[in-house]
Amino acid sequence: MIAARVAEAVIADVDRSDVTHIGTMLKALVNDPVAQLAIDPAIATAELLAVFRHDRMAARGWRYPSPTEVSTDLSQALESLTLALAARYRRYL
Prior knowledge:
The structure is a single chain. This protein is mostly helical. It contains 5 helices and no strands.
């Protein structure tokens, strides 16, 4: 499913270092559609992740998450992004 691949790619893109981020951007330039959907600022896929993480931190009272919460948040972010992206892509196809 494209949405799941894009969700994984945007999480990886947002969480990686600047050096590896450059590699992802170069990969997108050579026509990797998943990378393009994940990092193109005009599409704003990373914004969905930022909103999810903001809401999760606010619900936690801005407390730094435990390792277990980080793992849970990551899997829930992936699921949430996949569903949101799948709905978005269905609207356009």
